[in-house]
Write a structure and sequence with these properties.
alpha+beta; Gyrase A, domain 2; 3 domains; two-stranded antiparallel ribbon; 10 helices; protein biosynthesis
Length: 257
């Protein structure tokens, strides 16, 4: 038998020679010993297992690429980024309220934005708005008749499914009935508005990422990469908020409460 003090540090099944002093009398005659894989020292096996597990864990769980807010603020204008993205979500909310109601109201028409010669005005600044009856809205354009084409264009793009009839400088707008088709039309318009503002958020994201790529040599490629990931995460957060608003609005419009 081997003495307890003799360490075994041999891998694999092979023949090894040991000093005669390390052998018993019965073993000295042969002076050889076969060491099997099972005799591999536990400490080495543990070390091997740890190394393997470590490599496996590293492969299965890559290091997270993170950068804290203070570091991010030193690289980009974080307040500007949030303000621009938040503005898109807020504008989507406003458009949902103003332009996607089941029953068009004079209030929604009042605040309809009209672009005239590069400037934006609310319709109530350009016209007198009233109701002839519960089913008809009257828009008197006598003060600014030259803006009638702009007003008609804005009404058509409003998503309110309105079909104005012109008589001189007056527009008559029949309020559509709340039918299933009308509900589905408004729901589609809600999706179109969502896509518009989602793309606006992505555009802000892409603008900042392009700037970060240009700054990579100055701020370091690792930090630039981490910052890009954070910008994308912030954009995803605002788009997720817009997703929820869309889902809620479409349920309302389709009567799926």
């Amino acid at each position: 038998m081997l003495r307890k003090s003799l360490p075994l540090i041999i891998f694999g099944a092979r023949t090894v020679s040991l000093p005669a002093a390390a052998l018993t009398n019965s073993q000295q005659a042969h002076h050889k010993l076969i060491v099997s894989p099972a005799a591999t020292p536990l400490v080495l096996m543990r070390g091997y297992a740890k190394g393997k597990d470590k490599k496996k864990a590293k492969k299965g769980q890559p290091n997270k690429v993170e950068i804290n807010e203070q570091q991010l603020r030193e690289i980009i204008n974080l307040d500007q980024l949030n303000t621009q993205m938040e503005k898109s979500v807020q504008q989507m909310k406003d458009d949902f309220i103003k332009h996607l109601s089941l029953r068009s109201t004079s209030g929604a028409i009042d605040s309809l934005r009209i672009k005239v010669d590069g400037n934006v005005h609310e319709l109530q600044e350009l016209a007198q708005i009233s109701r002839k009856n519960p089913k008809t809205i009257i828009i008197n354009m006598i003060a600014f008749p030259q803006t009638i084409p702009d007003v008609l264009r804005a009404i058509e793009k409003s998503g309110m499914n309105l079909n104005p009839q012109q008589d001189g400088t007056t527009l008559f707008i029949p309020i559509p009935k709340v039918t299933k088709e009308h509900r589905e039309h408004l729901s589609k318009n809600a999706k179109a508005l969502y896509i518009k503002y989602r793309d606006a958020i992505r555009q802000v994201q892409n603008d900042h990422i392009r700037k970060l790529k240009k700054q990579a040599d100055d701020i370091g490629k690792d930090d630039a990469f981490k910052a890009q990931n954070q910008v994308t995460a912030i954009a995803d957060k605002y788009i997720a908020e817009a997703d929820k608003l869309l889902a809620t609005k479409q349920k309302e419009l389709l009567g799926e409460h």
